[in-house]
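Example 432, ligand phosphoenolpyruvate.
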Amino acid sequence: MQKLRHAVNGLSGSLRGPSDKSITHRALILGSLAQGQTYIKQPLASADITSTMNALRSLGVKFTVQAAGTIVVDSPGMANFARPENLVLDMGNSGTSTRLLAGVFAGLDLPVTMTGDASLSTRPMQRIITPLTNLGAEIQSVDGHLPLTISRGIQAQPIKFTLPLGSAQVKNTVLLAGLVAGVATTITDDFGTRDHTEQMLPAFGVTLEQVDNTFTIPDGQKLQATEIEVPADISAAAFWLVAGTIVPKSVIKLTKVNVNQTRAGILKVLNQMGATIKQQTIAAAEPMANLEIMAQPSLQPVKITAADVPTMIDELPIIALAATQANGQTIISGAQELAVKETNRITTVTTELKKLGADITATYDGFIINGPTNLAVAAPTTVDGHGDHRIAMMLSIAALITAGEVNLVDPESVVISYPTFFEDLEHLTQQA
Ligand SMILES: O=C(O)C1=C[C@@H](OP(=O)(O)O)[C@@H](O)[C@H](O)C1
Ligand SMILES: C=C(OP(=O)(O)O)C(=O)O
């Protein structure tokens, strides 16, 4: 349990936050498929990333960390991967590692069993089992959950797949299975889920043909080793975007934040709420921006609907906190995917924010939040991160504006995506 701090003098300072988790997973995987040495500059180091690296090591890939934090991926290439027998991989807490690597193993036709921690073992895997099975794979699972065994990979045939739900992980399962199996792969994504793999493939010498919401990767692709620089993660920056907005007297600068439009929904929402965020963008396949956030005492409520959700799925817990400070009713709908994350985030956000006095109601697909509420607790109050990193970080930001003592159960879960979260919080508060 950890006593959370208040921020009476606001937050101030500049931060280059942790690197993007989604982009780091993809750089490690694509770097491993390519023969030779791929250099990943400023990768994220976190528990979820370790899950991906450990799995790739079992294929004979070596990772060396250089002094500047660059990871050198040294791979025999996908055609020469080791093929260990009776392979069992522990994917820890990471949905992305599980679903993306299931695609890789199915494409390789390399039998594997994937296990995970208690949280990951409750998360739905039927969404990847169905498309892989339709492509000829044989997969055993416990009622659509881990442990999951791929006993036979996909069978060579051109792939045409229309994403049935707004999940980038499912899109990547099929994309990677097709890429590794060397078959032409056409995917339609009408949900606008994050497109980091599509943006990264050209650097590995793979060209995609994109028409509207459909892209095709031709058959027989051989990836070339390359160099990838990972920008800062907007899902981590989100905590400071909201903290800087709701904590009076704050001024925070965040540098080199990834603002890929399939990820940057939170910037749109905060702008609609009336937040003060200056943005200086550096154009690239993965555009980056320096952001300056200033406290904004008067915020407007917003309506977030299904079409917005994929661009801000992991940020909805912290957006819900911002909404408790807006003048009126915020409605977040179309976000039922939140129920199948590390926790049921519809329930955990609602239960824990209520303990701090928020007026928030859970719906089957989101929240109704009435603001503004003065988050105040009369007696020392214990809130619970439920082992979910995003809930623990959201509650730590909530405590900054809470009058009264707040203690957090499970602060350790920040290691999943943002191991230096509490150090960065100290850094920003100490300078005030
Ligand atoms: O592809 C990715 O890197 C991710 C996709 C999202 O999951 P879904 O695809 O399940 O929505 C997101 O919640 C997760 O943190 C990372
Ligand atoms: C949902 C998340 O990650 P994953 O699905 O990879 O476990 C997250 O980081 O919030």
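Summary: The CA atoms of residues 359 and 370 lie 5 Å apart.
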